[in-house]
Design goal:
single chain, alpha+beta, about 30% helix, globular
């Protein structure tokens, strides 16, 4: 999946890390939360583009 800096992403933790959902801009994911991308690639987190 390609991450765009200007787009908003829905991060669904699916029971990992206490579960829950966050909405985070692509720029923030790329600069501060590389582990979210790594976990999404392993299938522990679902990452979807909102806009």
């Amino acid at each position: 999946m390609r991450i765009f800096k200007t787009k908003l992403y829905r991060v669904d933790y699916k029971g990992a890390y206490g579960g829950g959902v966050d909405h985070i801009r692509g720029r923030v994911i790329l600069e501060r939360y590389q582990w979210i991308i790594d976990e999404a690639m392993m299938g522990k987190i679902e990452l979807t583009k909102v806009d």
